[in-house]
User: What shape does this take?
Amino acid sequence: MNKIKALLITILMLFVSGCGTKVPFKAQEPLDGAAVVYVYANDTVSDDESMQDDKFQLRINNQNVAGRLNGGEYRVFDMKPATILMSAVRTNIEEHYIKLNLEAGKVYYLQIQTGSYGEEFTFEEVSVSEGQKDIANTTLAGATGIDVTSYVPDFAGSTAGKEDGTVAVPAMTEAEIDAMIEKKLGQRAASTPAPAIATPAAPKLSTMDEIDRAYQMKEKGIITQDEFNKIKAEILAK
Assistant: This one.
């Protein structure tokens, strides 16, 4: 009887561990002298999983961080005050990025909207109130049944990479980040048609679209490099 009971318990434990339960969202306070950055993706609903297009790789300063972010999941990072470039990449091709000037004690919410299958996704910073409402419906990426501590990149030897700490996030100055953004814009311009010039009736352009439009003008010789740098600085300062 005892052997049968032990066998049943073992089978039950294997069944529970195999199924796993996603860890629901749990808010955390910023560490001393640090900021908290949440990145979350809305959940794409589809009867056919092969039609879901909601798997993302996250990067900080162009360095991949550990694990993937799927629709309906979030990741959290404790970050020391710095200017960083946070990117979301889908299928290793489509990339969107946000330049963040992190301040100690603050909490930042970055939202990925996947949209319908085949449509371009969006990646943007949202207000605290909107972020708190949306992220409450997500679960911790890559975690089942256990709580997982956040990554703590501090640009001084720590990491936001693999859990064993072998991949460090490179420190970058704001000038280096701006240069990287300009390079990415150049690559984007080379692979996609130039956006149409906005009219008063057109929807408001995003920050990156405004910079991209100015970059196209520079490439066509309409404005100089100095004029482009001035326009870009004014756009980023809005």
Residues 2-19 form the longest helix (18 residues). Helices lie at 2-19, 128-135, 174-191, 207-219, 225-236.
